[in-house]
Each structure stands twice: as C-alpha cells, then as structure tokens.
Amino acid sequence: MNRKPRVLVLGATGQVGGALVHLLKVRPEVEVVAAARNPDKAARLGVPVVHLDLDRIETFAPALEGVDRIFMATGYTVDMLRQSKDLVNSAKRADVSQIVHLGACGDDDTRVAHYGWHQFIERYIEWSGVTFTHLRPEIFMQNLLGYGGESFIVNGAIRHYVGDARLSWVDCDDVAAAAAACLLDPQRHAGQILRMGYEALTYHDVARILTAALHQPFSYEARPPAEFLRNVLAAGAEPAYMKCVFDSYTDFTNGVDIGADQIFDNFPEIAGRQPGTLAAFVGKHADRFRY
Length: 291
Fold this sequence. Notes:
- The chain has 12 helices and 13 strands.
- By secondary structure, the chain is α/β, with parallel strands linked by helices.
- Helix 1 packs across helix 6, helix 4 packs parallel to helix 5 and helix 8 runs antiparallel to helix 9.
- The protein starts with 5 loop residues before the first strand and ends with a helix.
C-alpha cells in the first residue's frame, strides 16, 4: 500500500518552520514531522517530533528514517556550512527525494558574506542530485520584533543600523506558504531559486506605517553599526555570522548599494494569493508594537 510522503521540517520551533508545520499538518496528502534539538519544546506543535541536533551527526540518520522531503533551515552561525554539508550527505544516503532550502537575500553576485554562505549550501544541494528548490527571502518583517537578541523598537523609538537604506520586506508566514507549496508539489518549482521580497521601505517608512496603524507616534533613529555588533555579541550571538551582518549594516549606513531594495512579483504564482504588506503585519502584531 502506498504511504503518504513524509516531510521533515527543520527549524520547527522557529518562525518560518513553525508556520510551515501548521500549514502542512492540515494537508491530508502528506505526513509532517518536526525536527527539533529539544523535542519537548516542539511537542506543542501537534505533530510527531524527532530529535535532530545539527551539531550531532549521530542524530541525523534516525531522524531521516522514512523521510521523503525536507524543509532545510540552519542557525545563524558559520557552523551552517558544516551542518548543511553533513545534512545533505545524510539526506542523500537516506534516499530523500526533495530539499526545500531556506537561504538568504541577494543575487548570485552578492558580496555580503553570510548571503554567500547560503549560496555555497545551495550549490552543494544541487551537486547532491536531490530535487531542490531554494528560497531566498529578503528582510523578514518579524525582525522588527527582535533580531539577534536585540529589540529594535521600544516605546515608539525605532533604532536600527542601516542608515536611510531602502530594504525589501517579506512576512515569514509568506515564506512558509511558499515552502509549503514547493513541498506539496515538488516538481512545480523544482530546480528554481525563488527570491522573496515584496515591499521596499526605509525605516522612516516603517515608522510612518506604525504611526498610521496604531495611532501612536513612532520615529526612526539611525544608530552606528558598531553598537549593533557590541549588543548582539553581549547577548551571546555567534561572532563570525554577526560580523557579516555588521559589515552589511556598515555598507547600508555608508550608502553602498547592495541591491537590497529589489522587489519581486512571483508570490501569486507560488501561493495563489498576494503577499502580506507591512501594514497588515503591524495589524497582526499590534500588541507587540503598542506602548
């Protein structure tokens, strides 16, 4: 008897992975399994959970047993390179048939270091011969709620480190919707790189949207990137990765054009609806922004 394809979701307790689990668990055509370093933390998701620790390769084979498709996400550390190589090798040995990889911003010529790390991972997946789709989201709207252990919006004051740069934004829920579409129909976007960013805004624009939506004043203050690096390292973030973020923030502050404001029109074709706007995101999370 034919069984349902089993989809393993990495990062299941995170923002994209968690949203993806909720989308897939109501679909009768697949069986979704959450991968977690701490299975107890994932128990609330309401799906089967397997133990997978990206720093312990001995957990890979048991977690991949019977898995047909993978949503692949890694942490914000330079270790992503080693972790991803080991995972792809293990997936190939386990006869996994599809990998949907969550990458980062940028075109193939990007000189932002951590974006490039994700692209090395993309090329390794392609080399493996496993059917793939790469997702390259631009800036997550959820970063407004906090990033690297730091909150950027406090009592109506937005403090960030990118000067007046115009950035392209995407809601994590839309990234999850794209991942679900690819995992439910592997051939539809096989071999594609899907770039995802649908609204180009500065932080001054963000402040205006927050002010209009919440009827409270918000303002933006550009801060020096060195302050960001100091704060996130103090919060325990991984130094090599955050140094890359610092370098990109320095470019933004200095007005260097790294193509961060590109927007795309592919989401209706991927997910069958329009992407979310920043105004809609603010509405969904109004209680987090009000003061």
